[in-house]
Amino acid sequence: MSLSERISGHFKASAQTKLNAAAALTPVIEAAARLMVHTLTQGGKIMACGNGGSAADAQHFASEMVNRFEQERPGLAAIALTTDTSTLTSIANDYAYEQVFARQVKALGLPGDILLAISTSGNSPSILQAVMAAHTRGMSVIALTGFSGGRLAEQLSHTDVFLCVPAESTARIQEVHLLTIHCLCDAVDSVLLGVEE
User: Fold this and answer.
1) For the segment 16-47, what is each residue's pLDDT rounded down to a tens digit?
2) Cβ–Cβ contacts within 10 Å for residue 109, how many?
3) What SS3 class is residue 164?
4) What DSSP string runs through 97-124?
């Protein structure tokens, strides 16, 4: 297989994975967006976390909320728990890396807030600890994962939203995660700005 064929294959696989996920994820993305709107209009906030590429997704989501997505609107309350290196490294050094998000959730999370927990495998210990902390604080969780959802799927309660990409490739799952984040941003804006039909 030539290099150009490999590259073309990635485009085709990504597009097919997104098409395959559309039917399963559309109603769940809508439920997650409506939960976000409810939280934001009640004065709550959304805290996002993930590791590696999922950390970048958490930051991407928070920036779209605080600044803007595609339409002009006031900033919305969202925080990426992946950005404060002093806090992250002190928690990892003094306690354990598994606590880097959970300690922040315990300190900053309030009842009615949302934790957007992003883990491709659903098995990241730091994400699992953050979800436990969120539940302890009376927060809902929106889990963005893939494969079968891993241990994260087992931790969720009836007030949580489970967004699991039906795919087995980490790269393809992450590509759908980015699309899902954009869908969430657009849906939140559509409801808040009254353009929902």
Assistant:
1) 999 999 999 999 999 999 999 999 999 999 99
2) 24
3) strand
4) GGGTTHHHHHHH--TT-EEEEE-SSS--
CA torsion 165-81-59-30 (nearest 10°) is: 40
67 neighbors 75 (Cβ within 8 angstroms): yes
Gap between the Cα atoms of 118 and 128, Å rounded: 10
Length of the chain as a residue count: 197
Beta carbons of 115 and 62 less than 8 angstroms apart: no
Q: In what order do the strands lie in the sheet with 140-146?
A: 78-80, 46-49, 114-118, 140-146, 161-165
Q: Measuring CA to CA, which residue among 39, 49, 62, 161 is closest to residue 112?
A: 39
Residues contacting 119, CB < 8 A, separation 6+: 50, 51, 54, 127, 143, 144, 145, 150, 152
Domain covering 3-192 in this structure, CATH number: 3.40.50.10490
Tokens of 116: 């957007």
Give the pTM. Answer: 0.96
The predicted model gives 81-105 an average pLDDT of 97
